[in-house]
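Sequence in, structure out. Go.
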Amino acid sequence: MKVLLSFFALLALSVLGTIPLSAQAQNNSPIVITKVEATLVTSPAYTSSAATMAAPVSGQPGKWLQIDFTYSVASDELMVKEIQFRAYAEVDDLAVPTDKTGPDACLSGEGTYLNIPNGKDYHGSFYIHPFTVLRFGGENAMGYQDPKGKNIRIEADLDGQQVAYKDLHDDDPNWVSQAGRKISGMLLPRELTPWALINVDRYPPVKLRTGGD
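Output:
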C-alpha cells in the first residue's frame, strides 16, 4: 500500500504542475511498461471440417498491424485487480490535407486486464484491422519501424488514474495531444481479433465490456 500511496501523492503533485508524470511519478508506479513493438502480420489460419472457408473479400488477405507491449507489476498486494490499457497510433489521414505541425490523425483503443500477479514480462496487444490499414494509407504507410517515423503509445490506468506510459519512439512526449484528429475504437484489443484463442496462457484474463466487478 505504501507504494501506491507514494505514487498517488506524486501524481497529485504532477496534476498541480510540480512534478511531471513521465519522471518521478512513473518511477514510483506499480506498473512499468517496458517495451512497445509494431509489426504487420497476416491473419492466423483456422480450418474447419464442417464448412468451406470463404475467401477474403478482396481476393488477397491484407495484413493487420499488431501492437505488442510488455509490462511488469510490483504492487504491495499479491496482485493488481484491474489495469486498463489505452493505445494510440499515429497515421496518415487521407480525408484531410496533411498538417505539418503534428500527426495527421491518431487512432486509439482500450482494453482491460484482470487479476495480474506481481511479476515481469507480461504481454498485451492491440490490432488495426486490414481494412483500417487500407483506409489510412495502406501497409506501406505503416512506417513504425523507422526511428523517425510514426509513433505509438501505450498508457496504463489504475483506478481511473494514468500511472505509466511508453512510446515506441521517445522523441516527442506531446505527439498525441498534437494530433490533428483523434479517432477512437480503431485499435482493437486482442479479444476482438482472430488472435483471441491463440497463446491464451501468455495473457491475463480480460474484462468483458458488459461485465462488472
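Check: Residues 73 and 119 are 5 Å apart (CA to CA). DSSP finds three helices and nine strands in the chain.
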